[in-house]
């Protein structure tokens, strides 16, 4: 049986192999509406992708509901904590970060296929460091990496800047996979050495290292901000990395323009 996909990216160490699969063409079924959508997706070069994990007597932490199927000697346990206290802690994390309250951990040896999606995936290797990710981006990681909630230090900046009060923090050493809204090649990464990066909009996805986040006026005075045409800017200061997705606002704007307007019911 020939494979309908190709491996577009992979990483591997002594404990785990992570592959990103991309399906070249979807044959469809007998539903004409599905066939029409698949045709336009293929014409627009929109591909179905899937994450495949090979465990080598190791463990993986993933978002709840991410599993599609698996093969091998693999056991599953919950990382949401035990009892009411653990459940409430997980529920709070779910509400605050747009991610699942209970994160399952897969242990053993075998192959795991996570749910396919038309989204894009980014593989990141942490080396005894922390990464702050925007809400809802975390997908899975080696269990040597800890996943938790990061509270914003500046509450007013978090609210005004549109990032919310809490984001996801991954820390430790190992591989992580994130589900990102744009292709990896459209991301822009800034290496910072006691520098500043300012962004006009909510398209900063990650930051790594000793970096402070605030929201500031584009100029020192309100009148200057109005005259310059720029208002509040997301501001990152320090040493480390900031990763942004400059094309994301364009896609969001196109989606809002192309979305059908709600129809009102006649009385």
UniProtKB/TrEMBL annotation:
InterPro entries: AIM24, AIM24_sf, Trp_RNA-bd_attenuator-like_dom
Domain of life (superkingdom): Bacteria
This protein's name: Transcriptional regulator
Organism of derivation: Heyndrickxia camelliae
């Amino acid at each position: 049986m020939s494979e309908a996909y190709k491996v577009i990216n992979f990483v591997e160490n002594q404990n785990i192999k992570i592959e990103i699969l991309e399906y070249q063409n979807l044959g469809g079924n007998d539903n004409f509406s599905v066939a029409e959508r698949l045709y336009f997706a293929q014409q627009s070069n929109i591909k179905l992708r899937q994450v495949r994990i090979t465990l080598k007597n190791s463990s993986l932490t993933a978002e709840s509901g991410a599993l599609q199927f698996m093969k091998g000697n693999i056991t599953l346990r919950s990382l949401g904590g035990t009892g009411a206290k653990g459940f409430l802690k997980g529920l709070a994390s779910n509400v605050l970060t747009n991610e699942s309250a209970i994160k399952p951990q897969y242990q053993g040896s075998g192959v795991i296929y996570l749910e396919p999606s038309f989204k894009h995936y980014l593989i990141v290797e942490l080396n005894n460091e922390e990464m702050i990710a925007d809400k809802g981006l975390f997908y899975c990681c080696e269990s040597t990496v800890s996943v938790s909630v990061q509270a914003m230090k500046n509450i007013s900046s978090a609210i005004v800047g549109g990032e919310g009060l809490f984001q996801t923090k991954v820390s430790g050493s190992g591989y992580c996979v994130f589900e990102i809204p744009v292709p990896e090649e459209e991301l822009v990464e800034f290496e910072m050495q006691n520098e500043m990066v300012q962004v006009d909009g909510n398209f900063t996805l990650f930051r790594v290292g000793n970096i402070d986040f605030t929201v500031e006026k584009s100029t020192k005075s309100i009148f200057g901000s109005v005259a310059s045409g720029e208002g509040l800017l997301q501001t990152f200061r320090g040493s480390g990395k900031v990763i942004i997705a400059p094309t994301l606002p364009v896609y969001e704007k196109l989606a809002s323009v192309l979305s059908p307007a709600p129809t009102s019911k006649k009385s």
